[in-house]
Amino acid sequence: MEIKATESELEILQIMWEKGQCTVRDVHEVLAETKDAGYTTTLKLMQIMHDKGMVERDTTAKTHLYKALITREQAQNTALDKIISTVFKGSASQLIMQALSSKQSSKEELDMIKDYLAQLQNNN
Q1: Which 3 state secondary structure label does DSSP give 113?
Q2: Three-class SS of residue 35?
Q3: pTM for this structure?
Q4: Which residues neighbour 49 within 8 Å (Cβ) at sequence distance 6 or greater?
């Protein structure tokens, strides 16, 4: 399943990944902390996400509960594939070099990257 989430949908998914099942009110309250979002806008976005198959909705109670159907990893992979293909012309190595040169990585992060690269080399 390819996920084509908008920026607003990704914000809602982030909340659901952190909280698990949420009401529209739960999501709206978190969004309202950082942006001027109307409740009806949040409701409409979550309904659209349900129609797209991104979230499921439990309607057995008076207050509907929403839950993400896609994982953080699925969303990350889709976004990353799009960035690699459009911005880096299909080159994952260019993406990695740009990422490493644009932000200072800690020694621990660099060690994790080295370990991961060693695993990849051993598997080939």
Answers
A1: helix
A2: coil
A3: 0.78
A4: 5, 9, 12, 13, 55, 66
